[in-house]
Design the sequence.
């Protein structure tokens, strides 16, 4: 899987986990934009945000080289999420009901998430933004609720690099460029009016301090897009396809989801990029139809034929349900310019030779991977399937995922594992 696809998967998963309404029908907006900084935006970033970069670890030199005219950014902005609320100090004693989003996302990079209603488990998603930058640097802009009905905007830049020794001291490789405010201690972002001004100067997505526009923008500075050098596909076009292949369950309506879970938009500069419709004439459509059958708990929805719904059991434990749909075999011919190769999302690449795959999902319904199956005996036919694990074994499936959440490895799961939130134990 290409690094940019990993970033898309982790960034959108972060946004989904941060949605304000945790009901199945809770909807959010996610906007992704790839652009080059204008000269005045670049100058503001240099002179007003990334000020006083330390010379230890080579961060100052790497930034100086990267922040050249035309340097790019990739922005991931979500709306309808909780934003980065909570104290701005990592050593704060958190009460049970005290939000710690700011500390967890900005300060405690790599800390496991540990949320029972989230899709992430390792905290890898937070680091993925830094890993996608050639200089390990991001700008974070968030509107959050600090008191009932009171919104606050927070903006700062952060860097993450390898640990190193210098001058007899051990450094973590983490760095924050902070605002100056005598009323706060520790890592201090710009607040409210100053954050509004900085976001505007940097050209970040507009965000008013209202509950409707609560959420977070993460701008990856100098993104690593080497895979797209000389490619007929732009990074933004790849992002649009990666969204479709990884998050089509959040883009369709079913008997389970009455509204799409996520409203996506992708931009290349000011140009909006088309995101494939999962129910359109493409190779995603059979998977989307199989999911509609799964949610309806009937293999006969919409007159579909050649369908089946099968409970999957292991040692009398219900692991989940598999929906299979027989579909005409379609390959990827004609989708790319002849003789040219272009970066593709994993699902698109896996099904190029024909669709005989099952999309694996946990209950958050983010695609884990496409598992290849045996091709049907009848020539010209393929299968598209969707497997969703049972809620009672969600924790076991979560433990089976590596940090990138792109496979299930049973060896990762202890012989006995527990869900502390529910008091459940599995074998």
Sequence:
């Amino acid at each position: 899987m290409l690094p940019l696809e990993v970033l898309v998967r982790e960034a959108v998963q972060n946004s989904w986990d941060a949605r304000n309404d945790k009901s199945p029908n809770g909807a959010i907006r996610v906007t992704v934009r790839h652009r080059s900084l204008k000269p005045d935006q670049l100058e503001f970033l240099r002179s007003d945000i990334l000020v006083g970069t330390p010379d230890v670890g080579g961060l100052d030199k790497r930034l100086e080289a990267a922040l050249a005219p035309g340097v790019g950014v990739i922005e991931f902005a979500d709306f309808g999420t909780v934003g980065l609320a909570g104290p701005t100090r990592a050593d704060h004693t958190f009460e049970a009901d005290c939000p710690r989003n700011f500390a967890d996302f900005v300060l405690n990079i790599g800390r496991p998430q540990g949320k029972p209603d989230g899709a992430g488990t390792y905290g890898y998603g937070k680091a993925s933004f830094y890993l996608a930058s050639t200089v390990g640097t991001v700008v974070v802009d968030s509107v959050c609720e600090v008191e009932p009905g009171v919104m606050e905007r927070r903006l700062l830049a952060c860097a993450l690099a390898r640990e190193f020794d210098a001058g007899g001291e051990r450094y973590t490789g983490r760095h924050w460029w902070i605002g100056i405010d005598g009323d706060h201690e520790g890592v201090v972002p710009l607040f409210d009016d100053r954050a509004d001004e900085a976001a505007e100067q940097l050209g970040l997505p507009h965000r008013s301090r209202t509950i409707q526009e609560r959420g977070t923008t993460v701008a990856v500075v100098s993104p690593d897009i080497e895979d797209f050098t000389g490619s007929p596909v732009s990074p933004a076009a790849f992002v649009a396809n990666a969204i479709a292949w990884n998050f089509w369950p959040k883009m369709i309506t079913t008997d389970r989801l009455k509204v799409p879970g996520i409203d996506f938009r992708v931009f290349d500069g000011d140009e909006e990029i088309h995101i494939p419709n999962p129910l359109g004439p493409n190779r995603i459509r059979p998977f989307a139809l199989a999911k509609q059958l799964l949610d309806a708990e009937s293999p006969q929805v919409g007159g579909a034929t050649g369908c089946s719904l099968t409970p999957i059991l292991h040692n009398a434990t219900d692991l989940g349900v598999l929906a299979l749909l027989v579909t005409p075999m379609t390959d990827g011919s004609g989708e790319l310019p002849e003789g040219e190769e272009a970066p593709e999302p994993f699902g698109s690449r896996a099904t190029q030779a024909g669709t005989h795959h099952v999309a694996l999902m946990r209950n958050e319904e983010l695609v884990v991977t496409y598992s290849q199956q045996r091709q049907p005996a009848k020539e010209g036919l393929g299968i598209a399937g969707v497997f969703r694990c049972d809620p009672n074994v969600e924790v076991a499936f979560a433990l089976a995922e590596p940090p990138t959440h792109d496979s299930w490895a049973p060896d990762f799961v202890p012989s006995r594992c527990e869900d502390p939130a529910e008091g459940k134990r599995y074998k």
